Fold each of these.
Amino acid sequence: MLKSGNHTKSRIGSMGKKAHLWPVWGLALLFGSTQSGVAQENYKETRSRSMYTHIIPIYDANGTQIDPDDPNAPPYSPAHTCMKCHDYKEIAHGYHFNAADAIENGRTGEPWILVDPQTGTQLPISYRDRPGTFKPSDIGLSRFRFVYQFGRHMPGGGVGENPLMEPKADEGEAVDEQADSADVELVPVVDEDEAIWALSGKLEIDCMLCHGMDSSYSHEKWIKEIDKQNFAWASTVAMGLGTVSGEVKSLPSGFNPAEAKENGPQLPKVKYDKKKFKEDGSVFFDLRLTPENNSCYACHSTRIVGEDAPEKWMLEEDVHLKSGLTCVDCHRNGLDHHTVRGFEGEIHPSGERVDQLSCRGCHMDQAHSDSHHMGHDEFGGNLGAPKPLHKGLPTVHLEKLSCTACHSGPLPGEAAMSLQTAMAHNFGLASQTRTSEELPRIKAPVFMRDDNDVITPYRMMWPSFWGWLDGEEVTPIQPADAYKVLRRALRIRKDFQSEVANITLTKDQRIEALGEEAGAKPVSELTEDEQATLTAYEEVKVVEVFREKLVEALKGIGDTAEDGSTAQPVFISSGKLYRLDEAKEKVEVVTEHPAAAPVSWPFAHDVRPARKALGIGNCYECHAADSPMFHGTVTAVGPAPDKEPITVSMHTLFFPDTLRMRVWEMFFKLRDAFKIAAFAATGFLSLILLMYLMSGLNRLLNGSRRDQDLD
Amino acid sequence: MLATTHATGLQGFGWKMIASLILLLLFIGWHYFQAVRGREPFMKTRPGWGFFVKIFYFVAVAAIAACAVTSFGAVLFSGKLLGWALVFHMMGAGTFVFLLPILALMWGRSSRFGQAYRPGRQERFNGLAKLAFWIMLFAGVITIYSPLISMLPIFGTEGLEILLDIHRYSGLAVVLAAILHGYVVWLGRQGQA
């Protein structure tokens, strides 16, 4: 601690005055140093609420200060620059960096989604133990390939700089069995791409990605450097400290930097912007302790897409942000960077209670029956949060529904909407080719029950991939391997989704669809009705043609099976599993295969104002035969053309007892009439009771008087 | 957990409910014992019950029983009145709401203390039955009003919680009174006296 360090300094400072006590002071200093060495951290802090102005020297990955005049200066290392004053190792275990660590995962979150447009792949993957996701190794993604694929929306650290660990395999003992044991020895997983790591460098935690002020950091440049496999250079470019020429991705296989020729391939080179450096070589870091919303948005943004999607300017932001709060007001963390996720029942790795930072924690008062709180209530109101009135809302709603069910995300409509997310759709990279249909296809809001049986809004995606079916298990095929077959069988060049849906109808087919006369006309001369008929016909044909081609594709993939393998080639899309029939002449469609089941994750933002909560108008916003929450539809979407997509009514996902739902809806149809009749009947009863009461009192009083008179 | 979640089993309301039921059953047992030994005064004649009186009374008892079983079961086992139990509770409650005024009209006059239905006629109910009847009616009114008012956008969560507690306790009083009334009526119909 600095405190103990200061004590040591003060002792040293006073030594001159009492030099004759040198031997004593010497011992004391030695003893004091030893003592403070135990307690002291090597990290600095100002203890001031005022933000420290970071004008600091920058260092490379070896801890050597960067000289901007050096033409061969290496890229700056955020880790070695920041760790001079901050505990980088402590920070590096935070939630944003610890996906591959063997830790409690907490509530499920958005998975990484491996997208390959050529093969129509959209595969949820995660190092965390999330239901419905695959491990990167299942799809042949080495640690390097994973970082190359997703580093664009990672803040660095974690698998970006540390090897994966696995239990050391002893002879005769399976690794999985060992993993259950608490005292397993972990050893690094050998990365098949170790040689490339030596060129790309580590993807260190880039503190500025989150802590940089608005315009001091370019997420787009970070994305582009990751795409070039210039991991170690990404921070330098993104922060605008210099420009980088060259890319690791283009280096020839087996490239050795030590043997690089002047005119041959070279490792990327940095040209530092000297204007950014002070005379002493230090650099101004425009940062703040608590990240700005803009930093969070880089990875945590969503957008509703599709024909009915509202324009961006028509949307309102989260009510909390509009009220002046920031993301980190609730999603806080200490130095350990274990960012509070804010869901109910969250167990924070620090052991601190964080339920006060959930919706209910701030907005409601909580009763505690545990001995720790002596049975006292805890009051909300953090950050000035108003306490909701919930007038007339039966309290059971507060137990059976999450706050987010009524307050978060887009209001549910007739059907779940199409949605894109920053991490899934590579937001942050300016592009002219973005469409609403680009993979992965995600739907929201979808109401489901969470692990605590509470109805919660989710986002949902149906995996799509080529794989091997063995028993009930489907093992995904690496997209690159699948593409070798699909290229020919499906004639795919760039985009599976659009190319399999793109067919040209023959004249005979047009006649079949429209009849002799209209079918012979050019498309431009068709009436609206005829065009609609033709479009419907074309949609059917697209599916037919796709399934015909799919036979060839699956046969082709089947030919690549290892000798002796009994696994069957399959394609999964939109909740359906496609496989060859026994004669291998047609495609068989399985609609309820566990491997085709959707993956889903709850969401909490954007929070709508109270007056825009679901049900604020009346009960019938939910409890009616046409309510979006119960009767809105969820349609499985994926890259494969499908004329009859799986479509379910929303209630089947969280309220499968249809009979009870119908009875309940019938009750609500009669609710208003019942209220009037019940008030009338009870009012009448009250009058009767009042009458008898008055009569009884009257009799009682008269009786007393009579008794008095008799006395 | 929210303050809205109530303790299950014999904690909170549960033990009060069980204790009051046990006390009532003990009283009924003691009373029955006294009746058998002829120490308690009973009605001299069986009350004359018409068809509709029987129907209304038994439907009302069935409605109260449905509400009691579903809600007491929820209190004891899950802490929450949900699902089909809530559906049946609502059905029972709906019936109870409209039958209670009918019961008041039907038996209010004959349940006046110290007064026969008509001058000169023998009383239909004894004091215990009358007491149970009036408790059932007064508690019933409170039991009905508390959820009815909850249906209006007047009270917030805390107010609704209080109304729910009122509903619980008044509902319990209705059930206890209904059991007592039923017992006394049954006893009278056995011709014990």
Amino acid sequence: MHLFPRANLRDPIRGAALAGVFLLAACGGTTASPATAPASAAPPAASAKPSASAASEVSAKPVASTAASAKPAASAAASAASAAGSAELAAFPPNSVSPVKDVKGPAGGDYVPGTVVATPPAASGPKAITVKPGEKLKVGFLYVGPKNDFGYNYAADQGRQYVEKALPWVDTVYAENVPENAEAERVMEQMIQQGAKIIFPTSYGHLDPASKEAVKHPDVLFLHQGGILDDKTPANVGSYFGEIWEAEYPAGIVAGKMTKSNKLGFIAAFPIPQTLLNINGITLGAKSVNPKAEMHVVFTADWCNPAKQTEAAQSLLDQGVDVISQHQDCPGAIVQSSERRGALSIGYHADASPLAPKTWATAPSWNWGPTYTDLILQAVKGTYKPSTLRSGLDSGVVVLAPFGPAVPTDVKSAATTALADIASGKLKPFTGPLKDQSGVVRIEGEQPDVSKLETMDWLLNGIIGSIPK
Amino acid sequence: MALAFVLAVLTGAVRSAVSVLFATLGEVIAERAGVLNLGVEGCMLVGACGGFIVGVETDNTLLAIVVGTLLGGVVSLIHAYLTISRGANQVASGLALLFFCLGLTALIGAPYVSKNVTGLNPVPVPLLSELPYLGPILFRHDLLSYAAYLLCPVVWFVLFRTRWGLIVRAVGEDARVPFAAGWKVRPVQYAAVFIGGLLGGLGGAHLSLAYTHSWVEGMTNGRGFIAVALVIFSTWHPIRALGGALVFGGAIALQLQLQGLGVPVSPFVLNMAPYILTIVVLLLTSRNRRFSMPQGLRLSFQGS
């Protein structure tokens, strides 16, 4: 998540330098490259029959798994056909179905839309997106970084690929390395000129440029990832996001059970509420199975700085830490450092196991595909009302990436049990009393609601490391 | 505990200093010849990206390092041509080179983000690595780190004890003098900038192939500018450049180690450390002629 722009204002030189990357990358990197549509793709109306039968064939296969089996985000695209397991989904126009029931969650269970946290009072809702028969609906995606970073942008692109498979009448375009400034407006403008009717600006800082474009193009729907809407947000801008900290607790169980030195490490970037929620969540999970486990936290003050990440990993390993987790935009360097020194890796955002075949454990990850698909379907049917949508493990937006070979069966089952319990609401990780580092009780009894949790500004008592001021 | 902490900080200091040390040494040579190359960050990026791509494609680490190094030198020739042959403004040209390289490597390197590379791994030096204290701090790193230590005295010797070094310094102080004495000034400056670019590229290759084993756009994150600052910090002297690079590496290692131990220390403050130190050094040395910058940096020479 990009609560701070990549071009960090705290470091003007780096800011200027990255501005340069973006300026120049704009020439090549952000030329909205149309995702390769299969050459055989006939207009939706014509293709409805064959693809419908194909889809029902796939859906005939048993989608046998429980909510706990946490199918990976990475393979979500592959399972898109079975997940969107209905003939109507693939057909066009999809006017007669209730798609929410048909779009399966990543674990094979029903996809449940998230909770609407807030609806702007002014929002009367946008017009339904109309698509002429025989034409494809064009949907644009903006990524703040490269789509193959095994991180935040990779997860978003997996979601885009899922949409392409699940909805054959949708054509996607995407742009990588789109900065969080007026450049993003230019990229969106270009996509709209190409005919895009729905745009997913996926970085936190894309909200303002998207709002500006939304005023200019009232007939285009902007679905923003992570933003919180207010009164001033145009009526054709909506927002959605996932409660990824819910997957940190089960990841913590893995860390707590696997550590031999009882020292765990967490490499964070900035002390934003989401990061602090993640650190506290994984620590609670680890302590629940191993009270002796000790969490060491280091902040790099950079979203993606491989050199500093490497040094942070090395310094934690030098101090005897043997499980390293993280909240960074690009997880690669830390995962690879851990692999080289034989420490267990808990990643973030997506499955990065190819980078650490031996020491990969798991990762709290995004599974955007079903959400994107559902939102597009609602928009086409005219039922979408812009809102600030939040969902977690129960909806399958957030998952635990597949376990690596180092994780034994009993640890896996402990983690998946916790996953299922959090998803069903039986287990609430942030149930009090919970004290902060200075010993003050911050949560007394029941787990606070999401909007309260998202203001977290403290670390749990016993965590080693401090929030940079 | 205290001893282990000091050892860990010093080891970390050496580890993160190496790439910056290469770039700083290169920039010392270029500036000694009167050419300020603010594009050293760009040379590092090209070296990091090019080296990484070759490393992934061929799995030949030596070839990867050589290619990364050469690419750093080649792009620095753009700066050399603009400033030496065309008399362009050094600051503008250097920054343009940087932005060009940032965009170019982001574009070309995009498919290689998060690829695995064999790269260089630590090779302890026999006997020396068993020394108490010094062994783990200095002699359990990768081969390029050892090369970096050795390069400091080599650069010092070349600059201060060889005829070519004398000419380089003369060109950097006042190009009219060696020109009047019958020396061709431009080839000397070209060579100095090229060597500076080579070392920048080598520093970048170390960053991607030995230190992080990964490539991400803009991964140097201002290390090239740190190198430019360290050149001033070291008052254009290769041996003091080693000290400067270690102070920089030490600042990073210290803050991360302290954080891991739970000492409240702000990463933001320590991020500023190299620049604050540079300002202090400028304050202290600005009136001392012994430490003054090569005077040729103030102007571009119009002879040949």
